[in-house]
């Protein structure tokens, strides 16, 4: 099989990791195509200043796979200083004393099939982290949460101000964040060194097929790449770029609202030792400052959809809309500032440096799609990262390579199958997607500090 002509569409997390794992298994004819003329693509979700690296999942499979990935991230000879073990502060609502049950963080009302129905996503994540031996610090109430943060940092109350739903959580000392853009650049360079042919500026027009077999890829510029195996790893562009794959109900492009704040050197030093904060009750999360003193915050939620291309949600980015492709809805801007105010109130008074819609390819249940397409046995999908694939960059391609070589465990074949029986919705977030209203996007002046301060 090693002499197969393999064509991978997409030079992001799934595409590059798959290329790397195939090349290290001895595959000698691997071609990677990407729509962007510059790599890493400036608007790809995998090309960012940071991404959370956590083992804290309610699904033990991801917990264990993340532990394996973190061990790889710590190889500085390969990844340099891409990974930063800052710790991750995982938050959720405390139990409602009137009912004796956990609040609805990470759950869906009426979901009788949910395992451990009396546990929140945070609760189950703690148990999974505990079982794999992570260094954990339980934080049972708002006071303990505040004490877990650096003493000189002004923090919110975390519900210890008479709120009906106070917070609880824990710190996982064995997790942190990765410089996402740097990780992609390193792997791109390594895939190139191992002999892959990488072609940028190659938006695809169609998958070539004959008699139920994928025979290659045709690009909009007229170029053709013949293949014995085609792997579609196009991320959030997959549904709109390949409408013939019939992904309706199986994968959806959603825009997630992100903002950045420029700190002064003094401010950055004050917040340098803060952990990643990940609140599964509200979806708000934030990072420690980067080396350039930029603090990023975002919302892990159902996201926004942008229907074009025959009603298919399609990413709207700085490449497709250079003038305001960076803009997020004004309401999202307010939500981000309110979330920051509850964590770091002093920073909520500062202007935002920039915003971005980070586009995910979401599966309804939050599991990835790694499987063969029913239209052709040699057409493989490696996509639907659902907002939590990047941390697995060192290892996720192994799953795709195992699938290609018919080595993937039966349980994982089913878990990641395109046509799997989907269970409950993604338990890490709840709510409904919202149509992106182009008339309600923020302007540059909206990024100013509240009240012009």
From TrEMBL:
GO terms for molecular function: flavin adenine dinucleotide binding; L-pipecolate oxidase activity; proline dehydrogenase activity; sarcosine oxidase activity. Its cofactor is FAD. Residues 98-118 are annotated as: Disordered. Residues 5-403 form the FAD dependent oxidoreductase domain. Residues 101-112 have a biased composition (Basic and acidic residues). The keyword Ion transport does not apply. The keyword Oxidoreductase applies. Pfam families: DAO. PANTHER family: PEROXISOMAL SARCOSINE OXIDASE. This is FAD dependent oxidoreductase. It comes from Macrolepiota fuliginosa MF-IS2.
